[in-house]
Amino acid sequence: MAGEKLIQFYRTKLSNYNLIYSFMTSRIWSFCLTMILLLAVPIAFGLAFEVEGIWSGLAIYAILFLLFYYLFIVRKARKILWKSYHIRNFKKLDQLKLCLLRNYLARNGFSTPEELVVLAKVLEEDDAYRTKNFTIKNIAILLIVLIFAALGAVFILEASPDGHRIFLACLLAVLVVVIAVILRVASYVISHFTDAKKRTIRALSRDIKELGASYIMEQNTSYQPYREMELVIENNDILREIIDGKAIF
Predict the structure, then answer these.
(1) Quick check: keyword Membrane in the entry (predicted)?
(2) DSSP state at residue 83
(3) Every domain of the chain and the residues it spans
């Protein structure tokens, strides 16, 4: 597949985990352990007040979850952003990712709008192939539902008297809808994991087009959209190592 290393770079090196959360694994584990221990709250409320207590306990647990998530994760992530990259919010982090991608592509020969258009087309061709596979999967689900419907229709025609046929026809219609919904939900769950690369390709293609537009903006105006992030990268050894990769294809 074309651009496999580029996709891998985008998915791993530019991920929030690599840039932030890998520096706070102990804090993440502490948060998870705390939330496990706090499961005692809804359990205690349930034992004390039965069903009504369980709902109250779950509401308190949800509030505690949000509170501790902010204290353990969000605050720590913001501190890492400032300490490591001297940026204050997650919006700037997205801009930093784009700047890292821009530098990585430039090091590999894609430093003009025209070259980025070519690269985006290559990625979109791969995405189009994967979309065909998704269409085939939908057709397979439809065929399964039609087979069940046909088998049910044969069974109904053999049933007697006519009153039973009407009841069985209604039951068959409900079952076909239920089967279709179950297969569709199962398809979405499986696709969430199997189509992760397709979502990455689409996000990468979108970012490449945005970078192409930024080059045109720089050529036609005095605005430098990534000047601040360029300074951040120049003064950070970790970020410079990230963009040192070679050989996109």
Answers:
(1) yes
(2) I
(3) 4-242
